[in-house]
Amino acid sequence: xxxxxxxxxxxxxxxxxxxxxxxxxxxxxxxxxxxxxxxxxxxxxxxxxxxxxxxxxxxxxxxxxxxxxxxxxxxxxxxxxxxxxxxxxxxxxxxxxxxxxxxxxxxxxxxxxxxxxxxxxxxxxxxxxxxxxxxxxxxxxxxx
Length: 144
What we know:
Number of strands: 6
Protein name: DUF1801 domain-containing protein
Radius of gyration: 14 Å
Organism: Pedobacter polaris
């Protein structure tokens, strides 16, 4: 199955990043969408250019995100402190959010990270207030 295209507004902003960051982002995004192809992708441009993966159209129902900063990117988990992390992959000091620093593909292309993403999806599914009608959509919050 082909991975859905990147939204043009996001692609424009992504194009301003270093080539190595763009390649890592595209591969990591593909990895997440392979695990859950029906997730909605919410796009933001604030302090970071961020692709958020959610089981609904709401940020509160997100299971992971890929924020791209000036010189690095992370695989973030909105409710990371609530997840089982037996391999201690997650770092951070926030009340809820945790992340995996991403410098190369083998930082995430492994069974431990795949299991963590699946755990995050299952956590959000159990926590969701009402089912969504949006499946597999890209929803941009980027002001163009």
